Amino acid sequence: MPIIAHVSSVTRTGWAGRRMRELALPRTRHGNDTLSTRNPTCAGRESTDSLRFLMRRLFSWLTTLAVVFSFLPVGTPVARAGTGTPVYVAVGDSLSVGYQPGRGRTDHGYVDDLLGRARRTIPTLSVRKFGCPGETTRAMITGVDSGCSYAHGSQLDAAVAFLTNHSSDVAFITINIGVNDMLGRCMDFHTGVLHRGCVVDMRPVLRHRLMHIIDALRAAAGPDVPILGMTYHDPFLGFWGLVPHGKTLARIAARGWRPFNRGLKNAYRDSGAVVANVARTFRVNDFQDTALVPGRGRLPLNVARTCLWTWFCTPRFFGDPHPNRTGYEKIGRTFARKLQPLLP
Asked: Would you say 291 and 298 are in contact if contact means Cβ atoms under 8 Å apart?
């Protein structure tokens, strides 16, 4: 999720960003939708400038926070035998560490919510978080361009080392990963357009990496440990009514988000993981039903939930795609519904 980590002279990609030098495309086409950055009318220039302002603001806070998080080491557990205390292992990107704008990592993310719910069945359960803001599947596997430092080399290596030495204690594993891969390659932050064709083209690579990750976690934890992965909410539905061409941008994003989440679901299921369908909880495809949003009136249900459950539509953190506490609670509950039947 969004962390654009600038270390030395290397710009890394997070949930909401591409490399800054790639953002100067003069025109973007998506099917029959054409959003030009050149408009001879004054009104056209003002519309384009408004969208550019949003994207600049988005990149500004991402880059600032990235400088901080890119140098934070992630503690790696000391190799030792299982202790007999049940543990929940969480891997992933910024959602897995409860990332909040202006605060960074918190203990109020979906992992913490799920931990509280699981403790109703396993009272002594603890959690071990390995997640890293801005993580991609490639960074998780190799450690290359990760925003975090792991003694074992990568997030996956660190998690596997822990699981290997605590396999008898592991109650379950959750994972969320992949959105940074997709947006880093397929989102044009100059125009706000998510390119569906690009999303479809990249799915085989994403599938291969995701299944590799699941296979490695399962081999280390054992065949009986539940592994749960999630689909993603679509924060760019929040463009609706807030920026020029916002309704068009929201619909374009939704068209690209569908094959992305479908690819995640198939990869998880084919690797034997259970899917927590967060996209369904957020109703990301539902433009038909409506809900009331204070100060905005009635909006399509998918847009309303994006604005109510994330920071994207807020004046203070406009454009931030992370869930707020309500959103994280909804994600935690989605995981819990799938996890409960798997617990002893």
From this structure: yes
The values of phi and psi at residue 201, to 5°, are: -65, -30
* H-type alpha helices, 70-195: 110-118, 137-142, 155-165, 179-186
The per-residue pLDDT for range 214-263, each reduced to its tens digit, is 999 999 999 999 999 999 999 999 999 999 999 999 999 999 999 999 99
Residues 6+ apart with CB under 8 A from 42: none
At residue 7, does pLDDT exceed 80?
Answer: no
Residues in the chain: 344
Domain contains 207: yes
> Which SS3 state, helix, strand or coil, does residue 233 take?
coil
Calpha distance 197→186 (Å, rounded):
9
- pLDDT, average across residues 148-167: 97
Q: What is the CATH number of the domain that holds 53?
A: 3.40.50.1110
Measured between alpha carbons, how far is 325 from 234 in angstroms, rounded to an integer?
A: 17
Strand partners, 194: 187
Which domain covers residue 271, as residue numbers? 6-15+35-281+323-342
